[in-house]
Each structure stands twice: as structure tokens, then as C-alpha cells.
Amino acid sequence: MINDDERIALFLDYENLAIGARDGLGVAPFDFGPVADALAERGRVVARRAYADWSSFDEDRRLLARAQVELIEIPQRVGGSRKNAADIKMAVDAIEMAFARGFITTFAICTGDSDFTPLVHKLRELDKRVIGIGVQSSTSALLPPACDEFLFYDRLPGVEPGQPARRGRSRSRPQVVLDVAPAEPAPQPVEQPPPAEQATQAEDGDAAQLITSTLAGLQRHADGPVLASRLKRAVLRKDPTFDEAELGFRGFGELLRHLESQHVLELRAGSAQGDPEVTFPEDGTEVDDAFALLVDVVRQLQAPGSPPPLSGLKDQLRKRQPDFSEKRYGFNTFLSFAKAARARGLIDMTWDVASSEYLLRVPD
Question: Which of these three, 167, 184, 205, is where a domain ends?
């Protein structure tokens, strides 16, 4: 039932997040999409509020408005502290909502400021679950231990440090669509399917990536098995326009069975008839092939004393396999995929301080 979902109220200390992402990650304007996706995997976001002097964040204001975030104006005051005014207003509103909206089970407090630690403690005293979200470089060490769960923005799927955030991104399409790099043009002449069929194939691939990335997120946060009904609700929270009928399927279950036939996921009997458990295949054949591809590419690129960096490596894999996506195998980021290969002893990864990135090599 829908009422089983967590009901989340989101409060953003926007100036703290935006400046932290700009200075610490080189991301500007702030990309709200990864935050929305992370919370969609955890429950229904029933309130979204962001606090700032919006005259300083004109472009951000338009992007947040498209994401259905309520903008709370904290104007610049002569002789006063704008920051303290925003902090106090946000804390007062959060406590007021905790008392006035008893159905809210979870508060997402997006800030790295330790001044909000007392607010977190008070919300937990009121039997509310608290999720903190902040940029790692600008998050106080006091704040994460106070929360039930803390998410570093830097580690969320879709955040690309050192690159501008995607501007004007529409939430009507799933984030994973933007993660797919275009394949290299095929040599001519090659017989291409009709345009309508090409569009259908692209939409089918987008749906598979949306479903697998959502399933991977749910499996990390769920206490038990992920049922098809719960997966469908999480998918709709990420992309409210999702409709399996547009892909030619009569129901979500039929789409899942189609993906099972392609060995993308696996279905098992659930607690209720017609609501199966959804998981990733356990035989590991496809993920083993993906790891083998990674090892082969790293071995090809590495030279004595010059191992290839992690950045750009995904594009190299796609030159060999254009439809490659780590999300197909249950990994939300390419870094997680590479670390899984390291855990299996397939590659070595070392952090290079000079270049500020991981260098990979195939062990002898």
C-alpha cells in the first residue's frame, strides 16, 4: 500500500549547499536532481522547501521551481545576518511541521552546517527519522553522527565533480537517460531500423536503466526483499510520466517479465500473488562479462609506469560496447563498479594525489 512508504519533508539550506557544491566540486548551478532521486528511493517527498536570498541565485531559482520546490525568501537585511535569519526560519518551520503534520515520518535536512545539530536532535526526540544531506568538503564533523542517515552529495549518482551541472534538466525524463553516452557512428553502409523502431528501442533501453538503477537503490536501503509494487512506486516518484503502455506492455509485471527474459533482472514468488520479488540475477554471467571487459580495456590502456585514470575509462568501455552501463548490473556509479572489480582482485586502484583521481592497473 502507498501508506507504507516513508513520507518525507525536505528542507534545503540552499546557500550552504550551493556554495559548497560550487567551491568544493566545481558544480554550478546546484543540480537538485540527484537529491530528488535519492529521496525518491526512500519514500514520498510530500514537502520541499528551500531557504535563501534568491536575488543571489537567479538561475537556481528557476531550476528549483521546475522541480516543484517551494522557495522561501530570506532577503538581505541591513545590519543583520542573512545566514542566521535563514537558519532560524528553517529550524522553526521544520519544528512547526513536525507538530502540525503528524503523518510525516522523515525529515531530510540538506545542509552541512553544525548549527542544525540541535534541530536534528529535537526531530529525533519527536520520533522522526532524519536524513542529512551535505557536500563533504563543507559538512561539519558534528552533523552526520546526529542523523539517522547522512548522504554526501558528492557520492550521489549523477553528481559529476569538476563539471557544470546539467542546466535546465527536466525531471520528466529519468536521470539515467542523460548518463548514456552516444555510440560512435557505425560505418556505412549499414542497414538501420526505421525511425519509429529506433525510438522504441531507445525508450526500452531507458526504461531498463531507470528500473535497474531504482532497484539497486532500493536494495541498498530496504530491510527486506523489493516487491514489484514497491519498485513501481519508486520508479513513478523518479519519473511521474513513466508508463509501461507507451513501451508496448499491458502492465508493469509484463515489462518485468520482459526484462527477466533478457537476464536484466530476476523475479521470485512474493508474499502476495501478482506481486513478485524483484532482484538481480545471481548467476553473475553478465556482470562477469562486464568485469572482463573492464580488465581487458585497462590492460590495453596501461603502460609501464602509466596506469590509466578512472575518469574517461567509461567512455573507453563504450567504444568497445556502446550500450555499456554499470546500472544494468546493479551499480549506481562507475566508481562503485570499479571498486567491485577491485574487491574481486581483478584490478588494482590507487589514489594519485597529484591528479586527484584513481589510477587503475591489472595486477601481474
Answer: 167
Q: Are residues 274 and 158 in the same domain?
A: no
pLDDT of residue 123: 96
Q: Which of 175, 9, 12 lies closest to 105, judged by CA?
A: 9
Best CA proximity match to 314, nearest among 332, 292, 338, 331: 338
Range of the domain at 243: 195-279
Mean pLDDT, contiguous 10-residue spans, the chain (364 residues):
76 92 87 90 92 88 91 72 75 95 94 93 94 90 90 84 46 37 44 44 66 83 82 85 81 88 82 84 74 89 81 89 80 81 85 84 84
Whole-number Å distance between alpha carbons of 157 and 34: 6
Q: At what angle do helices 14-25 and 58-66 cross, to 10 degrees?
A: 110
Domain final position from 250, 279, 308: 279
H helix runs in 269-322, sequence order:
285-301, 313-320
pLDDT at residue number 284: 59
Enumerate residues 6+ apart whose C-beta is below 8 A from 265: 211, 212, 215, 256, 259, 278, 279, 280, 281
Length of the chain: 364
